[in-house]
Amino acid sequence: MLRPIRVAALTGGKNVASARFRVRQLIPALSKLGVEVHEFVPPISKYPPRWKWLRPFWGVIALAVRLPAVWKSHFYDVVLFQKELVSTFVTLEPLAGRPRVLDVDDSIFVYRNGKTAAQLARLSNLVICGNNFLAERFNNWNKNTVVIPTPVDIHRFKPVRRRMPERITIGWIGSSVNFRYLHQIEGVLTEVVNAFPNVYIRVIADKKPKFFNEGLAHKLEWIRWSPETEVFGLQDINIGIMPLSDGEWERGKCSYKMLQYMACGVPVVASPVGMNKEVLSMGNFGFPATTEEEWKDALMKLIEMDQLERERLGDNGRLVVEEHFSIEVVALQFAEALRRVL
Fold first, then answer.
1. Which among 104, 26, 100 is positioned nearest to 333, based on CA atoms?
2. Going from the N-terminus, what domains does the chain have, and what CATH number goes with each?
3. Residue 89 forms beta bridges with which residues?
4. pLDDT score, position 146
5. Hey, which residues does 173 pair with through a beta bridge?
6. In the sheet where 268-270 sits, what is the strand order?
7. Which residue from 1, 136, 312, 340 has the least number of CB within 10 angstroms?
């Protein structure tokens, strides 16, 4: 019988995606494995405000509200940092308890010439990375680095076969800061919706995107993101898309959009960048696309496909998520990694 361990998890904020998906949703499953996680959620975001004149005041407050959690961390068996406590800086991390585990699901080393990322890794007893690209980089600074993917709650994100056969919806979910990836294929999407009157575009995000092509704007359905809409907004789309550039920041992404689509039984078209390429190789559930022509061909192939055939592809993707990316599977990996540092 393994002894229970207590973990202080210092995350980035209530609605920060990495905190929600890589820590908070794992807490019940980890508890069943004898790992009790107490998440310390800051009352203000770890990310600076848009207005530069506010940032000095924000910085002081952001550090002040973190101090109690840093002090309390000394009374736990393990301290888990969700990346840095304050965006792009090392601040109070050296004052926290030990052993320390750093969890990373973004290419944070692109900031400040990698100095913050390197320092955080060296301060930690273990680094957990969301994909192999991140692990290769962090292994340069801490040899005790492991890969654990971001889990999907397959009991929330699940197929619901209520799609209207006469209408085909291409869906995208994410933050408005990533609209630039959608704009990369705006021309392709415009061609597709113009060629097929029954095809629509759905965007689930915090803001409504502004497309430059009028024809595309008229076929846009925007759903404001919330923890509720992120599920039902995906369940009745027919195709999920994840376009990306090919850079260091994008290679550090953990394919979560694609995994959400797959969990809902939706076939995908995605840029084969970083982890996306690895996931796409795990089964027959969609198509990679790099050039505009490849994007157009892949989307048109899925649109013209029989609905039952699309659903068979979606079922293949769902199976991949169940076997490799479910909370139950990932929680076992996380518990083992956390126990390893004791």
1. 26
2. 5-151+326-340 (3.40.50.2000), 168-324 (3.40.50.2000)
3. 86
4. 98
5. 204
6. 220-224, 199-205, 168-173, 239-242, 268-270, 286-288
7. 1
Q: Is the peptide bond before 42 cis (omega within 30 degrees of 0)?
A: no
Non-local CB neighbours of 62 within 8 Å, separated by 6+ positions: 42, 44, 45, 46, 86
pLDDT at 15: 87
> Is the pLDDT score of 214 beyond 80?
no
Phi and psi angles of residue 104, each rounded to the nearest 5 degrees, phi first? -130, 130
Q: Which residues contact 215 (CB under 8 A, 6 or more apart)?
A: 190, 193, 194
DSSP string covering 95-108: GS-SSEEEEE-S-G
User: What sign does the CA torsion over 272, 276, 277, 279 have?
Assistant: negative
Helices (H), the chain: 17-22, 27-32, 55-72, 115-123, 132-138, 179-184, 186-195, 214-217, 229-235, 248-251, 256-263, 275-280, 292-304, 307-324, 327-340
Q: Comparing C-alpha atoms, which of 33, 132, 134, 36 is closest to residue 83?
A: 134
d(CA 162, CA 236): 6
In angstroms, what CA-CA distances link 220 with 201, 213, 236, 243?
Answer: 5, 11, 15, 17
The pTM of the full predicted model, rounded to 2 decimals, is 0.94
Q: Enter the tokens of residue 3.
A: 């002894």
Which tokens hold the place of 312?
């068979």
Q: Long-range CB contacts (< 8 A, 24+ apart) of 230-234?
A: 230/173, 230/204, 230/260, 231/156, 231/157, 231/264, 232/160, 233/171, 233/173, 233/202, 233/204, 234/157, 234/171, 234/173, 234/204, 234/260, 234/261, 234/264, 234/266
Over the stretch 141-161, which tens digit does the pLDDT of each residue have?
999 999 999 999 999 999 987
For tokens 């904020």, name the residue.
13
For the beta carbon of residue 52, count every other beta carbon within 10 angstroms: 8
**DSSP single-letter state for residue 4:** P
In DSSP terms, 248 is beta-bridged to none
Give me the residues paired with residue 203 across strands: 172, 222
